[in-house]
Design goal:
Elements (H helix, E strand, L loop, with lengths): L11 H37 L2 H4 L6 H17 L7 H16 L3 H7 L2 H37 L19 H7 L9 H9 L34 H9 L1 H5 L15 H6 L5 H15 L8 E2 L2 E2 H13 L4 H20 L2
Antiparallel strand pairs: 1-2
Helix pairs in contact: 1-6, 3-4, 6-12, 9-12, 12-13
Keywords: Coiled coil
Length: about 325
């Protein structure tokens, strides 16, 4: 005989209240999930703002991760081949990434492929946003500085870059490689006409990187990277070094502030290289970021500034580099 289920009678009103309560619980769970996703987005975007300023200029984070994986594979298989210069550069970049974002190495290991791609996308969003903010700040600030300090015949406009670069004598003297003299008519014509003898490339040191904007022909390192102009971005971007991050702790990751991410207790070589690129861009007449500006390659320029600090030969060179970094750190802390 089939068993008959006996329902305990309830009122329609009571059943409706319980259904509403269940739906409200579901809505609350969805709200919490959305809030968590938003916090993660805010956190990753905020953290990503450090990457171009402190790690790499154009290199995708994925390339750094791939190179570190390759390096680990070679070590596990006993491959002792000497890495190429590019591989070494990428690996140094990955190490720097883990210093700037200490949580990222373990986080990458814990995420699946889709989650990892989503995180990297948000980091890149922060990277691009920070660079855009810095560029906008320097565009106006550089015009003001040049107009006051260099007193050009035709004042630079803060909202327009078309009259900067090598068409402006005031900007040209700063952009001109330090080994040449802009006031020499042959040099001036050669640079403007882009003749073979006077190609302005990323391998040269522009005058704006020197103290008093002139190099000592007998000692090209004297005064190098000690110009007042290079310190302008660090003053303008003071928030980079001191302002707290709006990101909250997510998934047990340590809550950080911008100062601990990139403001640091000391200035790093890659921060100086980024600053040099931003100043160069602000003095130029190009209106949007790109690797090439005529014959000038920003990636090569950035690489060479970083290598000056990180790829030193011998204890004497290392001591000079450390002294220069200490000088930079003093300048930054004095302006905070």
């Amino acid at each position: 005989m089939e068993e008959v289920l006996i329902c305990v009678p309830t009122t329609p009103n009571a059943r409706a209240k319980r259904r509403i309560a269940a739906l409200m619980d579901e809505i609350e769970i969805l709200k919490q999930d959305k809030a968590m996703k938003q916090r993660k987005t805010t956190y990753y975007v905020s953290q990503g703002r450090a990457i171009r300023r402190m790690v790499v200029l154009y290199t995708p984070i994925e390339d750094l991760i791939t190179e570190n994986d390759r390096c680990c594979e070679d070590r596990n298989t006993g491959d002792c081949a000497v890495p190429s210069a590019e591989q070494d550069r990428l690996q140094r970049g990955y190490v720097e990434l883990t210093k700037v974002l200490p949580w990222i190495h373990e986080k990458l290991a814990s995420l699946d492929n889709e989650e990892s791609e989503d995180m990297l996308k948000k980091l890149k969003q922060g990277t691009d946003s920070a660079c855009g903010d810095d560029t906008g700040t320097l565009k106006e600030l550089m015009a003001l500085w040049v107009n006051i300090e260099r007193r050009p015949t035709s004042l630079l406009r803060a909202d327009d870059k078309h009259h900067r670069g090598f068409m402006s004598n005031a900007c040209s003297k700063l952009l001109c490689p330090a080994e040449w003299h802009w006031d020499d008519p042959i040099v001036k014509a050669g640079i403007r006409d882009r003749t073979v003898t006077f190609i302005v490339s990323g391998n040269l040191w522009p005058s704006y990187m020197y103290e008093d904007y002139e190099a000592d022909s007998k000692n090209l390192e004297r005064g190098l990277m000690k110009s007042k102009l290079l310190l302008i971005p660090l003053q303008a971007f003071k928030a980079i070094f001191t302002s707290p991050s709006s990101a909250n702790e997510v998934d047990g990751e340590v809550k950080t502030c911008v100062a601990s991410i990139i403001g640091m207790r000391k200035v790093t070589p890659r921060a100086i290289a980024y600053t040099a690129c931003q100043v160069r861009f602000a003095l130029s007449n190009i209106t949007s970021w790109r690797i090439m500006d005529g014959d000038f390659d920003y990636q090569i320029f950035w690489n060479n500034r970083v290598d000056f600090f990180e790829d030193t030969l011998g204890p004497a060179a290392r001591a000079r580099v450390n002294e220069l970094l200490e000088w930079w750190t003093r300048q930054v802390t004095d302006h905070q």
